[in-house]
Amino acid sequence: MATKENEHGLPGAADEPILLEISDGLARITLNRPAKLNAFDVPMANAWADVVTEAVRHPDVRAILIAGNGRAFCAGGDVQSIASMPDGGAGVTFLAERINVGARALLESAIPVVLAAQGATAGGGLGILLSSDYVVLGERSRVGSRYANIGLTPDLAVTALLAAAVGERRALQLVLQDRLLSAQEAQEWGLAAEVVPDESVAERAEAIARSWIDGAAGAYGQAKRLIRSRPERSLAEQLAEEARTIGAAFEGPEAAERIAAFLGGARAT
């Protein structure tokens, strides 16, 4: 696991494949293989699983920001590394399973996640994008599947999440073509919330994360959890979970502070 030095005294090295920095409620996770377009090999997959698990379990973390160093967010798997794996298909399965640990940790957490992407996002990078909750793309970004280019099938939650994000027909178009969507197309399809100038991606993503931290981060996180976990429940179970969650939120300090401020403002007018 790679961590940059931060307010918690976490050690780390800037040349490790995944960087984690926790400061002022924000966990910043950075893919850090820029020479390989942040493509995953086994060490990076292991670091990803460990770093994301640490971030979602850390008691101070109220928002997560995911970014990639260099000219691409994530090109998916490192084909050269994959081709040289001694265990063949079993090794590829292990690689995917390790990255899945991190993806599931993001999806199952009650912490909102913003992703800042520039350049190419493809293959497993698309899975990480889909596992985040709010996506900011640079205006020259490209987003696609491209697994079939090397004869492989989608993984890292792409088939679990893509159709829900863009619709089944568009999901099929993306995985059955050698196609990279422009940033504007990705936004139109629902894969990105915002498209901004490339030089503004990091700043805008951090502003989103800070707005959660400075606001009702717990309520945002629970709203995310309710939506992400909906497939696990029937309609009746979902309604019951909503009722339970809003009741629990009402008893918490975030709601108490904001309701008091709202009522005070209403009386003043």
Automatic annotation (TrEMBL):
Coiled coil: none annotated. The keyword Isomerase applies. SUPFAM superfamilies: ClpP/crotonase. InterPro entries: ClpP/crotonase-like_dom_sf, Enoyl-CoA_hydra/iso. GO terms for molecular function: isomerase activity. Keywords: Isomerase. Its EC number is 5.3.3.18. Gene3D superfamilies: 2-enoyl-CoA Hydratase, Chain A, domain 1 (3.90.226.10). It is an enzyme of class 5 (isomerase). This is 2-(1,2-epoxy-1,2-dihydrophenyl)acetyl-CoA isomerase. It comes from Glaciibacter psychrotolerans. The lineage of its organism: Bacteria, Bacillati, Actinomycetota, Actinomycetes, Micrococcales.
